[in-house]
Structure formats: structure tokens, C-alpha cells
Amino acid sequence: MAKTYVIDTNVLIQAPYALDCFEDNHLVLPLVVLEELDGLKKAEGEKGANAREAIRRLEKLRLSGGLLEGVKLMNGGTLRVESNFVHEEIPECLPEEKADNRILKVCRGLERRLNQDNGEVQKPVVLVTKDILLRMKAQMIGIEAEDFASEQVRPGEEQYPGRISCYVEEALFKEFKKKGIPAGNIYQVDKDGRKMDVELYENEFVILKSDQSLKKTQLGRVENGKVVPLTYQKKKPYGVSPRNTGQYFMQEALMMPAKEMPLVIVKGLAGTAKTFYSLAVGLEKLLNDDGSEYRRIVISRPNAQFDSDIGFLPGGEQEKISPLMRPVIDNLEQLIDSNEEEWYKSEAELRDKINELFDRGLITAEAMNFIRGRSFVKTYLIIDEAQNMTPNQIKGIITRAGKGTKVVILGDPNQIDRPFLDDRTNGLSYASEHMKGSPLCCQITLSAEECERSDLAMDAIKRL
Known about the structure:
With 464 residues, this protein is an alpha/beta fold. Helix content is 35%, strand content 18%. It has 16 helices and 19 strands. A 6-stranded mixed β-sheet has the order 3-4-2-1-5-6. Helix 2 packs across helix 3 and helix 11 packs across helix 12. About 3% of the residues have low confidence.
């Protein structure tokens, strides 16, 4: 039996194509949703762009028939706009003038009408909204509500980590660096010590352990059905050496040329050196190699509040985004001033060195709004704090990559500042799950134990 889904505005703002995701069910847009879309169509940034895209899609549907009467959707369902139920009763504690409560009125009215028309209790009307508080209010008055699930991925602890620990026979273990190991020859063990087959994904990193001595380990990567040794394990990009297993894997992914590995996704808590290492490799490629691989480093950091207000801030683009880039500058200061004993002894000299990188165009900082619609060629593109991006935004960034460009996506799915996103719906997690197994993507999740910021930071991660 087909269900009736009432769609909230925020679903269309996050995913303008959402109306195509409900199979052969009946969709209802309360009239207040159209009013909210109208109010958002001139907004800056992603919110305004998505509102306009949703309106264009609705216009195409309007031309196919009357939205008040209902139109057919491509997937076999229907869509209509509901303008009734203005006088439907809801608890007095919910003010009638509030848009959310007008949507609840429509849900309540539709349930009553469906039950009256059919003479029996039907499947309930379901409110679909990204707003957690609206879902709570719906539950309070007996209306079924759920999140928009089409873009959800697995919960954080079940998401793809990009690496796996496996066992291999001693004889093969000894030959690993010369020949690699066929993926079918490695295994894991269950709690009773019995061998288990293991599913490996292309470009997944592997910690190999000898079955004769658990103290013996080697690091590899899955490539065309084999586990092969790391190529860049002994490199020190811009003088930086890996300090843990996760950083060895991260270095391998970042050092691989863009023509072999154009996309790298790194997830991890603060202090695991995601940004620091990404910048170190970028500087190594740009300044210490022959300089032919990349023309420049481009850095962008999405910010929920900042991205929407950037047009109103004083100054040029670089002045507007300079506060947002301060964490990047902090990492550059440590990389440029590579001798830890001499750190920050001459602030003026250090600042001049960093300014020179920006003045020469070797490093540029871009606001996320200004990346829309651009194509990047031979660019080392770093997207930091990507957990604050929507799936639609992350798609736009990855598809902007031109020839010779490497896209490096960094973030922590547990540190989300943007409304309506969580660890299952943010762009970072979305990209990670959907690019899993791609021959053009390497990814790694750094663990809390691999925090290298300071002893205090490490202790705080464990305790707080």
C-alpha cells in the first residue's frame, strides 16, 4: 500500500532532487513550504542555489498538470500541494503562525481525511524533515516523522575506515616486499581462532601480520587483486616523517600522483595531523620536486555561518576569508619554520615567508561559495572540515576536478557545526562510503591513538 509523505522545506534545501527518492508513494507539499522556498530563493550560497533548483523542478512538474490536483512523478508516485487544513486543531502550546506548526496541521488533517475516506485506519501519514525538534513535536501529537534517509550512510562506527589488519603465512610474509601477496592468501581469525575470509576493497590499506610471529608487521595497499608494498614509506615530505601507522597510510595516499590517485579522503579527530600532513605533501610537490605536477595549492574550509554571510563582510575575498584560514596558517608556520628548536623566534621573518607563498600564488585560499562552477587544472585542492558540507556540495567539489588535479578531503564526522547534518548525512561520510572501492580514491581513518598534537591533547581525547 502506498504511503503519504509530507515533505518539509529543509529536505528540498539539502537535496533539491528529493522528490525523486520516494518510489511510488504519494508526496504532499504544504503551501507553507512554497512560501519558505520563495523567501529563500534570493539567499546567498548553497541555501539559495538549492532553493532555486527546487523551484525549477517544481515548475517542470507544474507544467505537466495542476499541483493542487496532483501530478505524476517519474518513479510512479504522485505529488500535490496542500492548501487546506488551515483551521485544523493542534495543541494550543504550538503557535499557529509558526511554519513548522502549519506543516503539523497538514499532517493531522491528511490523516483525518484519509481515515474518513476509507472508513478504516490506513497507514499513517509520515512527515519527512531534517529538523530534529520538529520530529519531536510531531511525535508529541501522534504524527509519525522520520529523517530524509536517501543520503544517509552507515553509523560512524560502521563506516569504511580505509584500512584493515590481516594475517598471512610466514613464507608469503617474507616475500611480500618483492612480489606482493594475492588478496586471496590473507585472512582474519574469529574469536575462537578459526580462519575467516576477508573482503578487501581496491586501494584499502592493509596491516599484514605474520602467522608465526604477531610482532612482525608490514604495510601494504590493495591494488588489482594483490596487496602491494607502500611506495612512499621512506619519504619525508617537506621534512615531515610519519609517526604512526595511520600517517604512513596517509602519506602514501597523498604522495601518489594525481593521475594515479586523484581523490584522497582522510577522516580523524583533531590533532591527528590531517591538515598539517596534507600541506606538507603539497609544499613538497610544489617547492621541492620539479614543480611540474601541480601549479598551486588551493585550500578551502566550509563554515556554516561564515559561508552564508561572506557577501556582507568588508574587504576583498582574501580579507573576508582570512579568519577562516587561521588554522591553515598555524600549520604553515610549523612547516615553514621546520626546526622545532627555532619555532617562532622571528615572527616577522616567519610571517614574510608565509606571505610570499600567498603573494606568488603558490597557495590560495578560496571561500566555498566561490568554488561553485569552477574547474581546477593541475591543482592540489585541499578541502578541510568537510564534515560541514552537504552531500550535494561534496559532489560539486569532486566533479570540479580537472586534468592533473588532486582533491584532498579532510574532516572529523564527530565535529559537525552545520544544522540538519549529522555523522550519517554529512558530505565527508557520504563521499567516503560512496567512493569506497574506487580505483581513483584512497582513504584512511586516523584513530584517537594517532593524535600527535601534544600529550595534553592525547590525554583529553581519552578522558573528555
